[in-house]
Amino acid sequence: MMNDSESGFDAASYGRGIADLYDMLYPPTPDCDRVASALAATHPGGTVLELGIGTGRMGLALARQGLKVHGLEISEDMIRQLLKNQESADIVVHQGDMSSFDLGIEFDAITCFSDGLFALPSQAQQTAAMRCSAAHLNPDGRLYIETTWPGVIPHRENGEPIGARNSDDSHFMVTTSYRRHLSQECVYAHSIIGPQGIRVVNEFFRFAWPSELDLMALNSGLKLIHRWSDWGGGPVPPEPGRLVSVFALDQTSAR
Predict the structure, then answer these.
(1) Domains in the chain: boundaries
(2) Band of the pLDDT at 119, cuts 50, 70, 90?
(3) pTM: predicted TM-score of the whole model, two decimal places
(4) Arch. (CATH architecture) of 12-151+208-249
(5) Where is the signal peptide (predicted)?
(6) Would you say residue 130 has pLDDT above 80?
(7) What's the CA gap between 238 and 15, in Å, rounded?
(8) What DSSP line would sit under 172-203, residue for residue?
């Protein structure tokens, strides 16, 4: 498998390339508040850690629901943008890698939204992120991992465009991708066209099938307790689009 140094990609490079435009390209949607409301109903007033909090699109929605929010983020650029976005929210921000963090705190819920786990480039690192999460859950805590069903991850074998996004009157983004089936890797090249010219930002995914997630969880002292098609707890259809996997500590294994 191609590693970070071979690909020229590192975990913070996406944030460096897109942090200043992220909120314009991916603005908050009503879904953010619906997801936050569902989590707040399950963990009222609880303490939540968001892995890969980015500029705070979901973290701010969680804080508005009265949850005590901590965010883990590796990119200094994303953190700077998050601090600008905080307004009156009191999010505790930790800079670090989700595959190797030790905050000395236990949480009621740990969340990883929008394929955040897939941004880690190897199975070992994804497993390490689950292991770190298990070490930070209180005995009744839950780990929520939102992923795309790998069968519907958009891609083209030869780098043809797979999508376009018009953020406003000044910026337009075209995305191309390459997928390596055997190594379960997908590399996206986002070409952002704006007044200052063209900026290309690369995004790396190492996707995993649900059965692999469950095995990584098992090896991390966790067990699957729910798998939904949405944050409302919907059943998983034969060909799902997105999945929400909910894990709890496996009390029969050593932490």
Answers:
(1) 12-151+208-249, 154-204
(2) very high
(3) 0.88
(4) 3-Layer(aba) Sandwich (3.40)
(5) none
(6) yes
(7) 34
(8) EEEEEEEEETTTTEEEEEEEEEETTEEEEEEE
